[in-house]
Amino acid sequence: MNNRQLNLFDTPMEDTAIPQAAQEYMPTGFSAPPYKKVLGLDLGVSSIGWALVKENYNSPSEILGMGVRIVPLDREESDEFTSGNKITKNQQRTQKRTARKNYYRYTLRRRALTAELKKHNMFDPNLFSLPQLKLWELRAKAVTEQISLTELGRVLYHLNQKRGYKSGKNSQSEEEKDPKYVEAIKSRYQELRAEGKTIGQKFYEELLKNPHYRIKQQVF
């Protein structure tokens, strides 16, 4: 909260309205007001509180008025509020800013990797039109067999896109928030390690069994 004060003086009167100790430091002929008005503001995120106080020098202060002004919600915020959703503008801004940041970093990674692959003759545009099954077959093949440089470049490009799941938050709070989801990820990873397979091999086998296998739902 930010507090601001503004002194508003009324018509002047005799210097006797000011305490004797303070009069010693004032210029000769100085004329002081009988009292002062102080406007206090309490600036909040969604409201502004105010109070107007009359401070007399030789008598108790008096509150002339007080109140609060609520910053009205827009239509979207009002709908969210009435439906009971806990949502704030800052939360929405943070989500959108994070999405823009992640997309920007994603494009930087792709550009840097593309330039590096071309530098080492590992970039073949024709390999980017491979069907999904062929692409995962190439990844599975690369584990046990030797592949060409351009094919390796395509595998690296695909790995750069599918980087897996790594929470940037505290692991304990993440598990408390959605323990079943986190446990499912850990369980799939442990099964994969027990079978001695890579993610590429696992998905290729699943796609051979079911062409409509949902890869995006299988987070490791």
Provide the spatial order of strands within the biggest beta sheet: 1-2-3-4
Largest sheet: 4 strands, antiparallel
Q: Which structural class do the helices and strands define? A: alpha+beta
Mean pLDDT: 77
Strand segment count? 4
* CA-based gyration radius: 34 Å
Structure annotation, total helices: 8
Proportion of strand residues:
15-25%
Elements, N to C (H/E): EHEEEHHHHHHH
Approximate shape: elongated
Uncertain parts: 4-17, 170-175
Helix content: 40-55%
Distance between the termini: 44 Å
Regarding quaternary structure, how should these chains be classified?
Answer: single chain
Task: Sum this structure up briefly.
With 220 residues, the chain is an alpha+beta fold.
Would you kindly provide a written description of the structure presented here, covering whatever features stand out?
It is a single chain. This protein is α+β, with helices and mostly antiparallel strands. The protein has eight helices and four strands.
Labels describing this entry:
single chain, 220 residues, 8 helices
Q: What is the element layout, followed by pairings?
A:
Layout: E1 2-9, H1 20-23, E2 35-43, E3 47-56, E4 62-70, H2 75-82, H3 89-119, H4 132-144, H5 149-161, H6 171-177, H7 179-195, H8 199-209
Antiparallel strand pairs: 1-2, 2-3, 3-4
Helix pairs in contact: 3-5, 4-8, 6-7
